[in-house]
Amino acid sequence: MKILVINAGSSSLKYQLIDMNGEKLLAKGLCERIGLDGRLTHKPLNGKPTFEQDIPFPTHKEAIEAVMEKLVSKEYGVVEHMDEIGAVGHRVLHGGSKFTKSCLVDDACEAAIKECFPLGPLHNPANLMGIKACQAVMPGTPQVAVFDTSFGMDMAPKAYIYALPYEYYEKDSLRRYGFHGTSHRFVSARACEISGKPGTKVINCHLGNGSSVSASIDGKCVDTSMGLTPLAGVPMGTRSGDCDPALLQFIMNKYGFSVDEMLNLLNKKSGVLGISGVSSDFRDLDAAAAEGNERAQLALDKFAYEVAKYIGSYAAAMNGVDMITFTAGVGENSSSMRARICGYLGYLGVKLDDEANGKRGSELKISAADSKVPVYVIPTNEELMIARDTLALAK
Question: For a Cys-Cys bond, which of 279, 295, 325, 331 suits 284, CB 3.0-4.6 Å?
Fold first, then answer.
């Protein structure tokens, strides 16, 4: 079966078409500036040329229609007919407490996605728009929702509950959910395969512009650093991560910020960008630090320090760790950041192989032969994880 994977944003739509017979990627692309002038980049992987051109996309429906046209076109296509696509898998940010795993889209699923609009105001409405657009263009084709929060639903109450009056959990489902769940699920499952032993304890570091750390046993989540929203946890590109809640009151009172302005500061102007004043891109920070920029160096140091603290706390939560993994943009590509983080982990017996750590581009064991805890780089593949869930449900 061929599966179309959709990741819809408010003004963009990323897609991949995967042949699940061999899990082969057939095509991928991006629709940008939906609702504005519109642009489509379509990359077939069968030797045909890439298509890149401005196309009007008033809504997500027109974007999906353009994608379908390119997938079957003689010049850029990878399938002959649309009925070759057996199902569509959608990345959905927030499933709330009602959906603990992926599901076929029906009225109840759509209602749950809508109920979570307040918890994922930037993502859930766009995710639902992507679903509706595909339903309009591909009537009768199974649609599957894969929730970013589903991985964290395995956490025990002591891990997910907040120390607030319990009524807010009962009435409003305010709890730790965690995000990057599809990535954490993919990497932790692969780590268990590599380990080959039951009860494998994995700490996975999904590090990029958005970053989170998870702890899992046998691929089931024990704890994860993001919370009710993706703002919690380690500092990120522009997000603050964990901070004293009273900071918000202080800044709002002193500078007259509204709640929305405060959240914009925490989400868009903080993190390593806020500390450095240089960039949210870790490559820019590395370059600036190499030239002696002390704030850029501080931002890098702060990030490594906080990730290492989470690793330590999760080793305690699981009473040990069998494997530490790095994934996503920074985790997969920044050998210097991996070295900074692992430099804190000597108490766990972690030792890096500097030569192996200097490589990039594939699955790698980067720990030394005498390291008590193996450390791996495992490239994530969220789209493939979504496609696997979709195949299982569509069958």
Answer: 279
